[in-house]
Write a structure and sequence with these properties.
Blueprint (H helix, E strand, L loop, with lengths): L10 H11 L1 H8 L1 H4 L9 E2 L1 H11 L10 E6 L7 E9 L6 H16 L5 E6 L10 E6 L2 E6 L1 E4 L5 H6 L3 H13 L5 H17 L6
Parallel strand pairs: 3-4, 4-7
Antiparallel strand pairs: 1-2, 2-3, 5-6
Helix pairs in contact: 4-5, 7-8
Length: about 210
């Protein structure tokens, strides 16, 4: 019996679109402590294109990823303080991922003369590097560790995601159920129906 091979789903681009459309909900879901400190009355500034230019100018041979994101937000501490948020959506295994995260952090901080930056890596596939949330080295008593926020879709709980009222929980849920039903058409079709009903029950536009 011939097994139907389902087409690859562009997780990275779908995530990028969702982040662009629902950025406050994205921060609330993944970084709730940061969400409460952001001045949402001031529009966040997307520096995605500038990030691509920085990478291209500093690392000419680097492959530009359309989903690499850099967003500038303003904090409500009364000092007009700004914060840069570096976001990476990673759907495939990359051995040197943590080193790339550190390299981008260093380039961003140097370009904008920053003292602080926060970063978030979201792994949308099943495989991640052993050290997926930090980059570190040690050389004769001198050492450094760059640790960043990391979230693995594959380890999430379906029931918890279904209970959440944040729309990004449904984004994670759709991603999780998709990677768990590779080449299983009937299961994937059923989860799509269930997700449709869940969206409708929450009052989302399903057209």
């Amino acid at each position: 019996m011939k097994v139907e091979i389902l087409p690859e789903i562009p997780f990275d681009l779908l995530w990028k679109d969702a982040i662009d459309d629902f950025f406050p909900y994205f921060i609330l879901f993944f970084m709730p402590n940061l969400y409460k400190d952001i001045d949402w009355a001031t529009e966040p500034v997307s520096l995605e294109q500038e990030l691509h230019e920085i990478i291209q100018s500093e690392i000419p041979d680097s492959k530009i990823r359309e989903t690499d994101k850099l967003v500038k937000v303003f904090l409500k501490d009364g000092t007009d303080r700004i914060l840069f948020i570096h976001i990476e959506i990673q759907s495939f295994f990359e051995k040197d991922f943590a080193e790339r995260m550190y390299t981008y952090c260093r380039l961003i901080m140097r370009r904008y003369n920053l003292k602080f930056i926060t970063a978030l890596a979201i792994f949308t596939g099943k495989k991640t590097p052993r050290k997926y949330n930090r980059y570190e080295w040690d050389c004769y008593g001198t050492s450094m560790t760059y640790k960043y926020n990391a979230y693995k879709v594959a380890t999430q709980n379906v029931t918890d995601l279904e209970k959440s009222d944040n729309p990004f929980a449904l984004v994670v849920l759709a991603n999780l159920l998709t990677i768990n039903t590779k080449n299983e058409y009937e299961k994937r079709f059923q989860f799509k129906r269930n997700l449709y009903e869940l969206l409708k029950s929450r009052g989302y536009n399903t057209r």
